[in-house]
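Posting for a labmate who doesn't have an account.
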Amino acid sequence: MHRWLLLAYPRDYRRARGPEILETVRDVGAAHRRTRMAANLVRHGLRARLGRPASRTVVVWASVFAVVCGLFAASFGTWLAWLGSRPLDHRDLAAVVRQLYPDRQAGHLDQDDPPAVFLIYGHPLTGDLLSELLLGDGGEYAPAELTASFDQAPPAGLTELRRRLDAAGWEQSEPVHSDAYDCIPDHPRCDPATIPSDVTVNAARGDHILAVEMTAEGSMSLTLSRATPGAAYPAGLLGFALGAPGGWVLFGWASRRTEGRRPLVQAPAKVLYGVAMVFWAAPILLSAPLMLTHHLSEPHPRWHVPWEWLGQPALSLPFLLGAVLLLLVLALAALPHRRPADRTLAGATGQRPTV
């Protein structure tokens, strides 16, 4: 088992010190717990991958990069799982409307299936709409929906609606009341108590999400969408489990490759990496608290997709700029250079490895 754990160390370190590490493990194995030795091997191996043994901040920067890579990889895995989900069928919406209101005719009812799982302005994402996604309208990229509406809400309103949802087997959340319009606070004519309310009821059944909105003007709309597919959760966890270690390894490779290089290489690499992390991490720090507040303020039968918590794709342009800067960093790290013959391996000292 310990031989496999040596994979935590960089290849040149394993080749030079691998036998010594295994010998040390055999010597102290009887006096230490296996789990403790394994944890120490992995910990020191991951630190050795970063090089720069005198640096106190390299671990922090590597951790930031690894976590961010893990979050983006988790979102990508979830997105792939969504693409494999069952597409919406307009006949399902028609069946829901007939079941809830068999005695009424909908003024509008979607008659076509959505062309894709995710849409932007009602269309699949194509090259023509890519500029819309990158230049501020990425928030319009969302799961497809089907809609129906009644010009006049059925009698008995909210009470009858909730009764019929219960009878049809829908699991409801508490109604959400929102002001039909805003007025200027402290204005003499602004009386919040007299502002009429729009009411929204969210319900879930199987892999369907139904949102019913009753407006203050007396109309009603129904929106049918897909619930989060079950495969999205393991896909997200797998993405994070692959992305975070992958980010650590990639950072470590670039760190060791730029260690001891001329300032002409090291300085640009550090600046580019710092700016790239601002482009990648700032949207997360901005979006995640806002999204959490939004979720806590009202019930959600389906949480927002993970990438929206990371500010994507609304802030996809900074993400792409950060990716370009990181590619430049990798290009600088890949430049050939001659290592001094007496140079110590990354993280290596003259002492025996600690286990």
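Reply:
Got it, the structure tokens are right above this. The chain has eleven helices and nine strands.
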